[in-house]
Design goal:
744 residues; 3 domains; 16-stranded mixed sheet; 20 helices; 23 strands
């Protein structure tokens, strides 16, 4: 036996590290390129984005800043040579009682056929505190730059519809309006949505809908195709939404592209031009422009089959579901034959069980370690400012436990190939789980299972050195579908959802166990333990947040009908003693109909009395149904208002702009159990007319709440009190006034 075979664990660790680094390199965003005729350029797109965003003021729906962005987009489209149809109407959600006055921009690039359309969609509004460079300015300019090139293509077959939606941040309301009312909504054959969540990261397919084979086939020729079907399965089970969710519910096939790194900057002032990664913007364009061109020139927009897909060291692997299922069945048969061919199959089964226990224990210890650090530091979401020590812990904590346990006598009593087979059975269980509950993700484990099944089946006739080399190859095959997922999931979801990364980390670690049992690992263990202790010390000592990865803290001012005011903090993290100036800690209420939410709350200094909103109504009865024609009076020019209904029948409905929907009950939050109707995008409208309808004559009572983005100038010191390591996020600081109403 040659000398290198004496160090199987070292070989395995080096192989894993090299494979991981190569996978990271292959899946990173491309470098930005200079302006070219036949290539998307991030520099050109960035200049256009800077023009559209202007002074980078946040531009939520209904604001003057959003109107300026809208007008600039219309001008850009006109310069391209496209006329714009502005869809102005109320957009209402089908999943919540929320509406907004929206202004969608729709333009068409003709093709030789009259339809169906290839639709390219992005939203141009932002949250009230963010410039929106990444979310979704990058998507908007990717669509515009693609349109510039498509309009010069001489022979487009399929017409292209550009859809720049409004009010995505308010609940996908612009997309809801388009797919509910626009005359071209039923003429879309395929839709591509472009989104952003953060300020960097790879642009990848996060989900598809409908028959995607043709789209995925063409996307394989992209500069750096990226994505995996697993994310599609994850999205089905998460509350996260994009405009693509609306088109999906409308039955339109297509794909959703997005990036999601540096999530602590998401929906904050740090979502700006200065921090937008040009490589990410380049990747956005490299994904969209060639794909849109090839689709618009193709003989067909869709193919009748759906396929699963996965990036693999920069290559694009995709296959129909029946192929994946057939391959899994063949693999299962080979592994069964290899198992029952063993002299002591029960010992093999016991070894597999032991490895399963090792994996579960290692992941549990990792989770407990992170949970203890969370409890100590008080962080729950975008943690931390200095993440290198935590990333080291993420990989090394389970390794420590694994190496400590993998040398147990049970694992040492079986041959190397048998330990590999025991590890493969754990992968098989993962594959079976995917097949039953997450079929889109089955392709993650198939490369390892396919090669591994052949390895263990032919192991009896192979030389030991050959088996070892083949087992090292398994590590290469395992990286994209396991270890390669850990950092993307951690970067996009944060450490508070580290549990999503642990199963994939465990799958990889269990393949290291056969190598660990081949030799003593005391030195490696000592190095890992020392590094883990140093990392924990650094995590405890280093500041939790920084200016580039800040804490998210909003202030909310509430002025009651008598003019008394309180101000409270809200944060995803626990506020420490440094925030004692913001009042005493504790869960409190500011509004009489809330269950409580505030972390810290104090009385506000004297401020001018805010005029309260009011409700006037005229009642009519038709066929046993009470109809209240309401006028909601808004004297302080708010950005939105809500009707919080505390007394009404269960069949309460509202009607606005010809749209009639039930008034839904909140299932969570401080207004859990209350019927709430929210109307947005109403700046500069002194009154809003709508109807409430219910059966019978039961009174309708509750509160009308007017909401203003920001705080009065007299409270500017509170905004400055956050310092450099905390920022408002999402709706940001806001001011509420309210008054009761009752309709008899």
């Amino acid at each position: 036996m040659i000398r290198w075979q004496r160090y199987p664990l070292l070989l395995a660790l080096l192989t894993a590290l090299l494979a991981f680094l190569l996978n990271q390199q292959a899946t990173r965003s491309p470098a930005p390129v200079s302006p070219q005729i036949d290539r998307f350029s991030a520099y050109t797109a960035f200049d256009l984005l800077a023009r559209i965003l202007g002074d980078e003021s946040p531009h939520p729906t209904g604001s003057a800043a959003n109107h300026r962005v809208r007008d600039e987009l219309i001008l850009v489209l006109a310069e391209i040579g496209l006329a714009v149809d502005i869809q102005r109407q109320w957009g209402c959600s089908n999943r919540a009682s929320r509406c907004a006055w929206v202004e969608n921009l729709v333009a068409e690039i003709p093709g030789s056929e009259t339809g169906p359309y290839l639709a390219l969609m992005a939203h141009y509004d932002s949250v009230p505190v963010a410039p929106g460079a990444g979310d979704d300015g990058a998507g908007v300019v990717a669509v515009l730059e693609t349109a510039k090139r498509l309009i010069n293509e001489p022979a487009l077959k399929w017409p292209v519809l550009l859809l720049l939606t409004d009010a995505e941040e308010l609940g996908l309301l612009g997309a809801e309006a388009f797919f509910a009312n626009h005359p071209k909504r039923d003429q879309i054959g395929l839709l591509i949505n472009i989104e952003g969540s953060g300020s960097s990261g790879v642009s990848q397919i996060i989900r598809t809908h409908g028959p995607n084979q043709h789209l995925i086939d063409l996307y394989a020729d992209a500069e750096r195709p990226s994505g995996m079907s697993l994310i599609n399965e994850i999205f089905k089970r998460m509350p996260n939404d994009t405009d693509f969710s609306v088109s999906k519910r409308a039955g339109v096939p297509g794909a959703d592209f997005a990036f999601a790194a540096e999530r602590s900057r998401y929906h904050t002032r740090l979502d700006n031009l200065a921090l937008l990664d040009l490589s990410t913007l380049q990747h956005h364009g490299d994904n969209l422009w060639p794909l849109a061109r090839d689709l618009a020139l193709a003989d067909q927009l869709t193919a009748p089959r759906a396929v699963s897909y996965q990036g693999f060291y920069g290559w694009w692997l995709h296959s129909p579901y029946w192929v994946n299922t057939s391959c899994f069945l063949i693999v299962s048969l080979l592994m069964l034959l290899a198992t029952f061919r063993q002299e002591q199959p029960l010992r093999l089964i016991a070894a597999s069980g032991a490895l399963t226990g090792v994996m579960v224990l290692s992941l549990a210890m990792t989770w407990l370690t992170f949970s203890a650090l969370w409890w100590t530091k008080g962080a729950t979401v975008h943690w931390p400012a200095y993440d290198a020590p935590l990333r080291y812990l993420l990989f090394c904590m389970p390794l420590i436990v694994l190496l400590q346990c993998a040398t147990i006598k049970l694992a040492q009593d079986v041959q190397f190939s048998q330990r590999v087979l025991a590890a493969l059975w754990i992968w098989w269980i993962a594959g079976l789980t995917f097949l039953i509950w997450l079929p889109d993700a089955l392709n993650l484990v198939l490369p390892v299972l396919s090669f591994g099944a052949l390895l263990v089946f032919f192991a009896p006739i192979l030389r030991p050195g050959t088996v070892l080399i083949a087992a090292l190859t398994l590590l290469w095959l395992a990286v994209p579908g396991s270890l390669g997922l850990v950092l993307p999931l951690e970067q996009s979801q944060g450490y508070h959802l580290i549990i999503t990364t642990l199963p994939f980390l465990g799958l990889f670690l269990v393949l290291l166990a056969p190598f660990a049992a081949e030799q003593r690992t005391r030195l490696v263990q000592l190095v890992l333990v020392y590094g883990a202790l140093v990392s924990i010390a650094l995590v405890l000592v280093l500041p939790l947040h920084s200016a580039m990865r800040p804490q998210h803290v909003n202030f909310r001012l509430v002025v009651d009908p008598d003019g008394a005011a309180t101000i409270a903090t809200t944060s995803s993290d626990r506020l420490g003693p440094d925030w004692s100036w913001a009042g005493p800690a504790g869960i409190k209420t500011q509004l009489p109909f809330e269950q409580g939410f505030a972390q810290r709350q104090v009385s506000a200094p004297p401020i001018p009395l805010y005029a309260q909103p009011a409700v006037t109504a005229t009642k009519t009865t038709l066929a046993g149904q009470a109809i209240y024609a309401l006028s909601v009076i808004l004297p302080t020019n708010p950005d939105w208002f809500s009707l919080v209904v505390t007394e009404a029948r269960d069949d309460l409905q509202f009607e606005l702009g010809g749209v009639r929907r039930p008034v839904m009950t909140n299932r969570w939050g401080s207004l859990k159990g209350q019927k709430v109707l929210q109307i947005n995008g109403i700046k500069d409208q002194p009154a809003i007319a709508l109807k409430l309808l219910q059966s019978g004559n039961q009174p309708i009572a509750g509160y009308v709440v007017a909401g203003h983005y920001g705080l009065p100038e007299t409270l500017s010191g509170w905004s400055q009190g956050r310092g450099e390591t905390a920022v408002p996020n999402r709706t940001g600081d806001h001011t509420l006034t309210y008054a009761p109403f009752r309709l008899e």
